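Task card 7
Instruction: Convert sequence to C-alpha cells.
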Amino acid sequence: MTDIEIARNYTMKPIVRVAKKFGISPEDLELYGNYKAKVMARPCPRDGAKLVLVTAINPTSAGEGKTTVSIGLADGLNLIGAKTCLALREPSLGPVFGIKGGATGGGYSQIVPMEDINLHFTGDFHAITAANNLLCALIDNSIFQGNTLGIDPDRIVFNRTLDVNDRALRRVTVNDGVKDAVPHAEKFNITAACEVMAIVALAEDLEDLKRRLGKILVAYTYDGAPVFAADLHAQDAMAILLKDALKPNLVQTLGGTPAFVHCGPFANIAHGCNSVQATRLAMTYADYTVTEAGFGADLGAEKFLDVKCRISGLRPNAVVIVATVRALKLHGGGSSLASLRKGLANLLRHVHNITQVYRLPAVVAINRFTDDTAREINIVKKAVEQTGVPVSVCDVWAKGGKGAKDLARKVTELCRSDNSTFRFAYDDGDAVEEKIRKIATEIYGAANVEYLPAARESIAALSAVCDVNSLPVVIAKTQYSFSDDAKLLGAPTDFTLTVRDVEYRGGAGFLVALAGNMLLMPGLSRQPNAVGMTIDADGKIEGLY
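Output:
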C-alpha cells in the first residue's frame, strides 16, 4: 500500500482522547475538527525530561526517512514503556508540490491526518505569509504617504513571501505603473525561509513575539539609518495575525503518540527546527521528547545545536543519526559495495561531529529499505561499531514502532549518559567571520572561507546597526554536500566555502550567511509532484505523499 492508503485505513482517535492519555486537559485544547487541535497550555518541562534529536547524513533528493524514523522511534519508545511525545516541523507547500514531497513520515510511521497536515493544516503558514506581507505593504504605504521616515526604496531589505516554489518571483518590480508610487525592485522568499517564520519558531510568548517583530530590519533611509518594523508601528498588527499561529498544533501518530507539529523553517536556507514552544510542551507532558532537525547534521543539527539550543537553553540528551544504504552509495559515487564502503566517509564525519565536536551521545539508525541486502546492512553496522558508537537497524516504514524497539532501547540507554559535556561549535564572543570559519572547517571540513565583496560590505554595514559579533550564524547552503557545491559528495576536504552575502534577522536574533548559489526562493523541477496529483468528484486526493 502507498503512504496515503495506509493513512486512510487507520482509524484515528479523537485528539481529545490522545491528549487526555498524556495529561493534556480538554480545556487546554482549541479544536480544529476531531483530529487536530491547538494547545493553549504554557510549557513547563518536567524535571528530568529527556530530549532526543534525530538528524541524518547528507540526503538524496528523496530524503532518507528522518521524519519516518523520528515517528517510528517515538512509537517504539512508548511501546517499551517510555512515555514519549513528538515535536516536529510543519510541512511547506513548496516541497509538497515540488520534488521532495510532504513531511508526515511514511508507511506505518506517519502522523495523521496526513493530507490535512501536508496541505493547509491549521493555517499557520498562511498567517505567517499574511503577517510578512502586511509589513511589506506598510513599508510601501509609508513611502507613498509622504515617506516621513525617509525610506530609500532602493534599500528595502525585507522581502515579500509565498509558500510555493516559484523562481519567477526571485526578482520582480513592484509599483510599476501605479500612479504616484515609486517603483522598486523586490524579491520573494519562500515562507519557510522568511524571518517571520523564524520569529514564531523562537518566540516564548505573545509579548516576546511582538518584541521580536518590532526588531525586524526593513530598510535604510537616504541617510543610511536603519528602519525597523517598530518604526512603522507594525508589530501589534502582525501579532494579531499571528496570535493563533503562535499556539502549537497537536495531532497523532499511527501508533497513538501525541505529536506537536509547529513551524517549518527549512534547514538549507533557514534554521531548520520546529518551535521552541512545541518542544517545551512535549517535554511538559512526556518523559522523552523526540524532535528532528532538517536535512543532514551539517545543516539541521548544527543549527539546532548552535542556534536553537543557544537561544532557548535546551540541551539534547541523545542524538540519532539516520543513514540509508542508498545515500551512502550515492556518496560513494555508484551502486556497488565498493561505493557503499567509500560513501561511509560521509556518515562517519557526521558521527565525529556529533560525538567529538558537540560532545553528545549518539546512535546511528540504519533506515532499512526493502531492497537493502543483509550484506550491505552489515557493512554499515561494522563501520559504525568500529567507532564505538551504537548502531541499530530499524524497519519503521514496514513495522511502525515495532521496527524501532531496538533503537528505542539504545536511546534510553544513551539518555542515562552525561550530556553536560555538550559544547557549541563556536563561542558567543567569536567574531562573525570566526563563527563561520569554525562551522566551515570543523563541521563541513573546509580548508578556508572566501567572502565575496557583497558579503564583506554587508558585515561592515550591519556593524552600524547591531553588534554582529554577538549573534549566532545560520549558513544557507546546499543540503546535498558538506560543501556549498551540491555535486561534491562524500566527505570532501580542502574546499573553499564561498559566502556571497550576509543578512541580518534582528527579530529572530541571528545572521544568515548565504553560501554558494543557495537561493531563498526555490524553483520547481521539470516534473514537479504537482503535475501528478489528482482529486476526484468526491474530494479524494491521489499523488500526495
